[in-house]
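Handout, section B. The chain below has 277 residues.
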Amino acid sequence: MAMKSFKPITPSLRYKNVADFSCLTPKKDQPKKPRSLFVALKKSGGRNQFGKMTVRHIGGGHKRMFRVIDFHRSKIDIPGKVASLEYDPNRTAYIALIHYIDGEKRYIIAPLDLRVGDSVVAGPASDIKPGNHLPLSSIPVGTLIHNVEMVPGRGGQLARSAGGSAQLMAKDKEYCQIKMPSGEIRRIHSACSASIGQVSNTDHENLSLGKAGRNRWLGVRPTNRGVSMNPIDHPHGGGEGKSSGGGHPRTPWGVPTKGYKTRNNKRTDAFIVKRRR
């Protein structure tokens, strides 16, 4: 899939590019979807149940409906046909509408090279081809996978964003070694399932918004630098002129950033074979 650029007839168009969406099914050709596949999203503005802002820089954004994605792939040995490939405003990857032979319709994360009309199936005896979903014990070593479970039956949690993929590196009794998109190698139980292939929309990393307005459409509000604030507002604030803040970079609450390790989960440390760094 290619990116579409624009002639720089305005400053905002000079660096702007968008996906050309040529691999997706046109709106007029998409089949009718059941209402159960859509859920209304309520905006939080980054505020919790008490109205206190707990996440900064969130607000506004275009109204959107949430597409219910089947991360569990629980329809074992029931073939389905790809009816359409669609854009999802809630994620970077594209999604595929699957029509199963028993009449049910579900959305799944669309892998690279999946086409309308292709057949997909979940189960231990499935073929090793993009879109199929199998237990790790049934997948050959070296295969690229996505939508990987961390706990059997919980549903896929790893390698779900655009262009992402994990790789099955080795099998050892009850556990498999998986190389994450970050480079970390981790042990995951062989009863966990994963989908075959790399996630679609690999050109997403080349996306250039081009103007601040496109960030506002996505619900991202402006971010102010700490060094431009007063000392009461940020540890980097204050000083004469353009002072750099001094010391190690910190969050507004004093926690060091940029390389400072905050991971503290001894329960799952044993599953990490090799760190990403």
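Note. The mean pLDDT is 95. Compare this with the example in section A.
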